[in-house]
Amino acid sequence: MAKITKRDQDYSQWYVDLVTRAEMADYAPVKGCMVIRPWGYAIWERMQRALDDMFKATGHENAYFPLLIPESFLKKEAEHVEGFAPECAVVTHGGGKKLEEPLVIRPTSETIIWAMYKKWIQSWRDLPLLYNQWANVLRWEMRTRLFLRTTEFLWQEGHTAHATAKEAQEEAERMLGVYRTFAEDWMAMPVLSGAKTDAEKFAGAVTTYTIEGLMQDGRALQAGTSHYLGQNFAKAFDVQFQNREGENQYVYATSWGVSSRLVGALVMTHADDAGLVLPPKLAPLEVVIVPILKADADNSAILTAATRLAEPLEDRVRIKVDDRDNVSPGWKFNEWELKGVPVRIEIGPKDLEKGQAVVVRRDTGEKTPVDQGQVAVHVQDLLAAIQPALLEKARRRLEAGCRSVDSFDDLKATLEADGGFVFAPWCGEAECEARVQEETKATIRCIPDDAEPCEACAVCGKGPATRVPFAKAY
Prior knowledge:
Elements: H1 11-21, E1 25-27, E2 34-36, H2 38-57, E3 61-62, E4 68-70, H3 71-75, H4 78-84, E5 89-94, E6 97-105, H5 110-120, E7 129-138, E8 152-162, H6 165-185, E9 192-195, E10 207-214, E11 220-230, H7 232-236, E12 240-242, E13 248-250, E14 252-259, H8 261-270, E15 287-291, H9 300-310, E16 319-321, H10 329-338, E17 343-347, H11 349-354, E18 356-361, E19 367-371, H12 375-400, E20 402-404, H13 408-417, E21 421-426, H14 430-440, E22 443-444, E23 447-448, E24 453-454, E25 465-471
Parallel strand pairs: 3-7, 15-16, 15-17, 20-21
Antiparallel strand pairs: 1-2, 4-6, 5-6, 7-8, 8-14, 9-10, 9-23, 10-11, 11-14, 12-13, 17-18, 18-19, 21-25, 22-25, 24-25
């Protein structure tokens, strides 16, 4: 089995090696696209199911809207089309003929959805509309990386319509909270959260909210966004309703989404030089049992013991007995470590003699001999411990990766030497934000709700200012 490049040698190559050799994804024939292999897709399915339950618990329904969007729709919202025009792929011919109007392959679905909302919304009784869509989108990316940024990717996009600005604002903030809960409780990935600056917000939004993770190489990764759209799209598509007083007014809107880049975020948050390290909640398999079989020997007793170890766990955890006889036990150990299975159980002839099995914890490598009768209880306790342990480890790394400076020189030096989130005072002016990005390639990742007020901006020296996190990002 080919070795993975070490993180401290070439972090970018480590990531590619891991994703491809763990059989999560592979490069597609079309440049910038990827094939998601079963192991990677199983992780995405676990994410999808958890998020879908969370969306439905907050009153949202799933729907589906077309892949192809009339080009004229995108042009109705000027800021939106300006933001997405460079990323759009356009269909000009179909059925062997030139189309009367070009069709855009969806980069996002606000325009097609708001064209339909105009048909469906007439009265305050029709509101709110709380819809979500699971779909693929296409954005013509110049620089791609498996899962993190590809031309075509999978995502969900929520689109809601409300009678008041207050309701829409609360919805946008509520869904950001859902994303934060998912990141921390399911992915074991702590995040910063807050509003984006005007330069970084979604094209067409009044306010964009974000959660930002910190990867092991000190770069930030935007893991989810929620947008308060105000009445921008309602006005562009003339979506009005009659309120309780009998007056016509435009509806208020939100949109929010996460994508399959969360799979890449999971890799970069927890994986090590041996491969993936998966939180139990998102692991396609939580436990694998590896019977240590001997060539040209009667292995029936070992296989029977492995099956018996699995039986009490089968209804409680996702478990597999790896009884392949065409590869060695060592090969299996390496493979399941590479794929990040949280717990491995080994049982061989010597273990049978002692009435035990060896339980191996993926995140720490700790090996524990356990009486066979106690394996089921021990494994369940271990899985319950691994999830919060991964979160705590990632939280410590996030805290260590947050640094505070007051001058522009210190900001540049810290970003260059240490990376991570560097908190510095910012006056709110776009010119200062742009200067930092030009000289360091770092951006303001969010404006935290509890941002510290400061007297003077680190860039221009003017005040008042607010301390915000700058970071280089994926």
